[in-house]
Amino acid sequence: MTLDKALPRDHAATVEFQGLRRKFGSTVALDGLDLAVRPGELLALLGPSGCGKTTALRMLAGFEHPDSGEVLVDGEDVTRVPAHRRDAGMVFQSVVTGALSPWPDVAGNDWPSDHAAVITTFAVLHED
């Protein structure tokens, strides 16, 4: 999906993950993630808790560093660039209960626990 009018292309950036790998102890959060997002594209990272969605975005923001692999913004390797030196913004995750199903459980007026979604918003801008 593309968002042609959401952001002028001259202010949007191409983001690439090349072979990103990250372990936390014995848990592998990312295992060779390869992904490219071009200006105007909209991307949703979906998966169960602990599969690496937020870890990948934290690497893009500079809050986390991969064990191996590279993060590129407009072709420039920013893998080791500190967070405060990146033109990026991240709104941390929040659980949105019932986001995947529009109707609560009628009997308890409560959302089933398997219908919760975690949403993290991220934007990368580049200045000329």
Automatic annotation (TrEMBL):
SUPFAM superfamilies: P-loop containing nucleoside triphosphate hydrolases. InterPro entries: ABC_SmlMolc_Importer, ABC_transporter-like_ATP-bd, P-loop_NTPase. Residues 30-95 form the ABC transporter domain. GO terms for molecular function: ATP binding; ATP hydrolysis activity. It comes from the Bacteria. Keywords: Transport. This is ABC transporter domain-containing protein. It comes from Streptomyces colonosanans.
